[in-house]
Amino acid sequence: MKAAANVKNMTEAEYIAFEEKAQDRHEMINGKLYTMAGTSKTHNLICIWLVNMILNQLKGQKYAIFQENVKVQITHEKDYTYPDVVLTFDQVDISSEESQYILKKPTLIVEVLSPSTRVYDRTDKFIQYRKIESLKYYLLVDSEKVFVECMAKNTEGVWESEIYTQITEKVILSELNIEIPLSDIYPQ
To answer: 80 has which bridge partners?
Structure first.
């Protein structure tokens, strides 16, 4: 779990100004700052592999994909998180001059799980992310074992979960025409 920073409650404007100058990254939930922990080499490699797989499958489409350093604003909230990987097709998100640091309409969010973030990413973060109307997929990728959970919002707006634990399986994000072989996430 992330530790609360030694900073009092902040307004949204104060947070954005503070974060643009901060050396460390901070998520803001309910006006409180949480310092982001560093990541392992494995965690970072998984993010790189995922970004590369997605990039290769979306050639010719208008999208933006980011790894770890762009904030997502939770819809109708003043909460901000830093997903490990985030993909948007929203043209305002892609070309906005208003904010080079914030996405508001992601389609896919990926969190790479570590022992310190596993529970938070599966519960509290997912509760927040479900509020984002544009979000269709939320992937949880374990950094220590072969385990991927794909939460997908169906056409009725209900979230469904599928778990993958076999290296031979593929996560299929049908609405995005993306296939993610687990063997590419967890090379042996």
So the answer is: 28, 73
